[in-house]
Amino acid sequence: MQTTQYEMEVGSVRANDVLFHYIAMGRGRLLLCLHGFPDHALSFRHQLRFFSALGYRVVAPFMRGYAPTQLAEDATFYTADLAHDVVELLRSFGATRATLLGHDWGAHAAYGAAVLAPEMFDRIVTLAVPYGPGLRKALVTSSEQQKRSWYLFFFLTRFAETALAYDDYALVEQLWSDWSPGWTPPPSEMAAIRATFALPGVASAALSYYRHALGTTVSLGKHAELQRRIGIEPIRVPCFYLHGDQDGCIGHSVASDMQELFPNGFGHRLVRGVGHFLHLERPDEVNAMIATCLAGDG
Question: Are 281 and 275 in contact (CB under 8 A)?
């Protein structure tokens, strides 16, 4: 194992008409870490340290809409937009090929990018959110998943912004507690995440991810053809998928039919005793699993 330690960098780069701010560590092959909701790039701090020591250039951008990343006021938040963000980020970093690590909405972004440009990725590693029709089916047929996913429907309402902001974004902390039961993040780290949501435009943008995904509008955005393909089309990039068995956001059974959608390789690990934020709850174990996969042994 390479043990060289790097200082954490901060920087910005323009990609897909968005000025992305990012944190990064290391030198070598690009490993792009994509965060989800309600979160920010700093939640990949354990992965930045671990994989930079293994010889990767690890970059975690603040995703579209998450300050300090900046975008136009009329920006949209379809999964296809996220896919183009990822592909253009690679090009802006001067990479022609990379590995993706995506959690929650970052997993959606990774799937979308792999549909859009499979030749640019040697592998995708996704956490906590599966690919394919399983979740949509569960939202129709499973009362248990419907209860877990109450927030999806709540976020479509007119008063979601007010409720999200109430009591200094207490709902953000409550979602973390519900989704990773039995685990309490350090107070300083949760305070930093709540502070991210208090920045101008972040809460509205975060809700827009769900409104674009679940709204009743007939529009699919400027990348409508790609948007129709994502979630249905098989992905030609090998995937390694991890899910916590205590996940309070998405039940792990929802991922049971993923394998057939990855004809070039699929690995799955159910991580015992952890919830939705498994890469933070058990970073050493999760990082070791991912490293074994990336080395070709898992």
Answer: yes
Per-residue pLDDT reduced to its tens digit, 138-168: 999 999 999 999 999 999 999 999 999 999 9
Q: Which of 90, 143, 135, 141 is nearest to 108 (CA)?
A: 135
Q: Residue 234: count other Cβ atoms within 10 Å of its Cβ.
A: 12
Say what the pLDDT of residue 7 is.
84
3-state secondary structure of 283: helix
What CATH architecture applies to the domain 9-294? Answer: 3-Layer(aba) Sandwich (3.40)
Which amino acid is it at 5? Q
The residue ranges of DSSP E strands in 185-248, in sequence order, are 239-244
- Among the listed residues 281, 214, 213, 288, the one whose alpha carbon sits nearest the alpha carbon of residue 247: 281
Q: Do residues 112 and 223 lie in contact, with contact meaning Cβ atoms separated by under 8 Å?
A: no
Amino acid occupying residue 211:
R
Domain ranges, ordered by start, for the chain: 9-294
Q: Which residues contact 156 (CB under 8 A, 6 or more apart)?
A: 210, 211, 214, 215
Q: Is 30 helix (H, G, I), strand (E, B) or coil?
A: strand
> What's phi and psi for 99, nearest 5 deg?
-110, 140
